[in-house]
Specification:
globular; QueA-like; 6 helices; single chain; 354 residues; 18% helix; alpha/beta
Length: 354
């Protein structure tokens, strides 16, 4: 299967730059696979498609302000660091720009008042210092941080939300790049399908008799890496950490046993469930790393339906969605979304595949 099989034309002005004032007022395209139909609704109407006895699975990861702007300690050159994976208390795998200025041994200062080195020490001082200790796969850097106090508090003060590069507007409210149910720190990007939910909508869903189960997958490097190989089978997915606890496993397995549907909120929840699922459609309580790559031809074990946003052309996310339905049908739906002026990507509108 070729990368170009997942290409579509998207006008630049349809890339959503800002979240809507009210989360659940996004538009919702509903694809009914059995009927082959498309409906145009609003996201708050999603409850109409959920039945008592179903289970909605959400990813409760929390985005950390993982984008740090700093200066080289000795020269004052500007360097941007994006935290990806925490290896231990002080060490992270990161993306660094520009990489040529971040050789092993380079020291980067964050929270400095000035990028001019001190006349006596010849160095810049700040609230946080990172030293590049290794260069690994695809040029990522391991950085060991030095600081006084609590790292998370320093990061909250100095860090910025790591918005995707196609969003050029400044995000005024950091909470809008978090789901209302975000709990476990660790993501470098939001599980954006969940951004449409409000606490009130979740309460209504539960009152209808739909169970809500929580998994955790910390969104990492794969979100920022485009597919470069024309043969998609040659693409390598980066691993991301996930967790499923006993309560969640019990809810999902009970739903399956009683004939309910598993409706996954987002591709991250989907990858978690399919990693942990067996051929019977059951999952177990487990934590670990997943690099599962889902593309057309994949047979889903756990997930029955999917809530998701509209994804970039030629992306692994679009491939996953195409695996759940028919690739040509998905591309036709995307063409209709363009005609109907849907908003695309992270702050955009949503799709429900039933």
């Amino acid at each position: 299967m070729k990368l170009s099989d997942f290409k579509y034309d998207l006008p630049q002005e349809l890339i959503a730059q800002d979240p809507l004032a009210r989360r659940s007022e996004s538009r919702l395209m509903v694809l009914d696979r059995a009927k082959g139909t498309i409906q145009h609704r609003h996201f708050y109407d999603v409850i109409d498609y959920l039945n008592p006895g179903d289970c909605l699975v959400i990813n409760d990861t929390k985005v950390i302000p993982a984008r740090l702007m700093g200066f080289k300690e000795d020269t004052g050159a500007a360097i941007e660091v994006l935290l990806l994976k925490r290896k231990d208390d002080c060490t992270w795998e990161t993306l660094v720009k520009p990489g040529r200025k971040a050789r092993v041994g380079a020291r980067i200062v964050f929270g400095a008042e000035s990028n001019i080195p001190d006349e006596i020490t010849g160095r810049i001082t700040g609230k946080l210092v990172g030293e590049v200790i290794d260069i690994v796969e695809e040029g990522n850097r391991f950085i060991r941080f030095e600081y006084e106090g609590i790292f998370e508090e320093i990061l909250d003060e100095l860090g910025q939300m790591p918005l995707p590069p196609y969003i050029t507007h400044k995000l005024e409210d950091k909470s809008r790049y978090q789901t209302v149910y975000a709990k476990h720190d660790g993501s470098a990007a939001a599980p954006t399908a969940g951004l449409h939910f409000t606490n009130d909508l979740l309460r209504q869903i539960e009152e209808k008799g739909v169970k809500i189960a929580r998994v955790t997958l910390h969104v990492g490097l794969g979100t920022f890496r485009p597919v470069k190989e024309e043969n998609i089978l040659d693409h390598h997915m980066h691993s991301e950490f996930y967790m499923i606890d006993e309560d969640t496993a019990e809810i999902i397995n009970s739903t399956k046993d009683h004939g309910g549907r598993i409706i996954s909120v987002g591709t991250t929840s989907t990858r978690t469930l399919e990693t942990a699922g067996n051929e019977m459609g059951h999952v177990r309580a487990v934590s670990g790393w997943t690099d599962i790559f889902i593309y057309p031809g994949y047979k889903f074990k756990v997930v029955d339906s999917l809530i998701t946003n509209f994804h970039l052309p030629e992306s692994t996310l679009l491939m996953l969605v195409s695996a759940l339905y028919d690739r040509e049908k998905i591309l036709e739906a995307y063409e209709e979304a363009v005609r109907e002026r849907y908003r695309f990507f992270s702050f955009g509108d949503a799709m429900l595949i039933i």
